[in-house]
């Protein structure tokens, strides 16, 4: 599997798409604190570093979907996966190496943005006002949610040989998850649900924490009271998506 990972890393270093996405994340980490600093000086706006750190939670699912679908989809369109099997690599190793490269690449995107905005934001805005434990949970769970996104998108791409349809499906799935999470959150904040103890409310509360998109929306509001559940659900989704992807990929007839 080391050879497979080495080949993936070489492709990653040559990927213009990945460098563009990485540049976008770093650039946004530079621009956001600069704009906040200007507004603080010009209008006396009171910004916190916490409020600026979490903006990428709204788009990271789509960023990961774009990268995974195009990067892994190229293996099918170029016939690389068949060549890897012919060369004697097992399908399990091929799948795991694909998952690992997507996870590593996606985490680098998030961490690069966070390091940039924290470094520059501490200077231009202000140091964190929230305790370090809460900040660590927010950053850690956001990274874990990013890994979950990578696992879901890897599954979609590895069981679908069509690069174009994989890209569309990955983006649609990300959009659906965010749409559901926004809707669930709006319902939970509605007056009808405020004092309700119904089973329907419990279902909505479960979806709000179960979906990685719902977790990120909660983290935007610095809500970490259910951090343990968030971690467990992320791991559960990653295990289920990876297990399903491996089983289907093992039986797939590669054209």
Automatic annotation (TrEMBL):
Is Transmembrane set as a keyword in this record?
A: yes
Does this entry carry the keyword Protein transport? no
Entry protein name: ABC transporter permease
Q: Which UniProt keywords apply?
A: Membrane, Transmembrane, Transmembrane helix
Q: What GO molecular functions are on record for this protein?
A: ABC-type transporter activity
Any one of the GO CC terms:
plasma membrane
Q: Which organism is it from?
A: Dorea formicigenerans
Transmembrane intervals: 17-35, 55-73, 94-126, 132-156, 168-189, 231-249
């Amino acid at each position: 599997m080391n050879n497979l990972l080495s080949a993936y890393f070489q492709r990653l270093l040559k990927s213009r798409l990945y460098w563009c996405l990485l540049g976008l994340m770093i650039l946004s980490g530079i621009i956001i604190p600069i704009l906040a600093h200007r507004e603080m000086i010009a209008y006396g706006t009171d910004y916190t570093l916490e409020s600026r750190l979490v903006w990428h939670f709204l788009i990271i699912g789509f960023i990961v979907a774009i990268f995974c679908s195009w990067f892994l989809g190229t293996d099918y369109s170029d016939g690389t996966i068949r060549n890897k099997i012919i060369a004697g690599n097992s399908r399990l190793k091929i799948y795991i190496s694909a998952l690992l490269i997507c996870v590593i690449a996606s985490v680098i995107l998030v961490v690069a943005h966070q390091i940039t905005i924290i470094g520059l934001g501490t200077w231009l805005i202000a140091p964190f006002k929230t305790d370090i434990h809460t900040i660590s949970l927010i950053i850690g769970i956001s990274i874990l949610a990013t890994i979950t996104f990578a696992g879901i998108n890897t599954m979609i791409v590895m069981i679908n040989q069509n690069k174009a349809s994989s890209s569309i499906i990955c983006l649609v799935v990300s959009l659906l998850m965010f749409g559901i999470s926004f809707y669930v959150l709006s319902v939970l904040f509605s007056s009808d649900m405020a004092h309700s103890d119904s089973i329907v409310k419990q279902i909505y509360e479960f979806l709000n924490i179960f979906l990685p998109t719902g977790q990120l929306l909660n983290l935007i509001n610095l809500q970490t009271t259910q951090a343990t559940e968030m971690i467990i659900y992320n791991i559960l989704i990653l295990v289920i998506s990876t297990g399903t992807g491996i089983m289907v990929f093992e039986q797939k007839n590669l054209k």
